[in-house]
Amino acid sequence: MNLPEKFDILIITLSDRAFRGEYEDLSGPAIRERLTTFFSGLEWKPEFRMQLIPDDRAILQDLVRDASKSMHLIFTTGGTGIGPRDITIEAVKPLLSKEIPGIMELIRVKYGAENPNALLSRGVAGISGKSLVFTLPGSSKAVNEYMNEILKVLEHTIRMQYGIDSHAKH
Questions:
Q1: What is the pLDDT of residue 167?
Q2: How far apart are alpha carbons 159 and 111 in whole angstroms?
């Protein structure tokens, strides 16, 4: 199986307040910026679609379910905590056919050692349909911490998803 010529990427920001226009979404654009740099280093072509939605489980599930038919990567930001409006994990986890727990566990342990509040994030990663899915917290600081770790393994993860044995090169 070959890698796609371009990678279709959906970035979903969940935030009631940003959706209402009370403040600007900084987390979604931060993910896009980090991915743009990552892809330029590999000479792969990303194409981004940005979506800002309220903290609504049905809207999120519909978006992820539809996107997983055509998008290569889906990132969410927001809604991974334990508050009453934090519904991202409940919406996304049932849609994953394969969960990839290690990356999120590493992030929680690594950053939770410095900031115990990071241990409250319930982010998940996995595969839904043809998409790799990563659920990140809503703060731009946390997004950068998560992306630091995700980007270390993203190329290998993509190659594995497409059945390309990158171990054979080494």
A1: 63
A2: 27
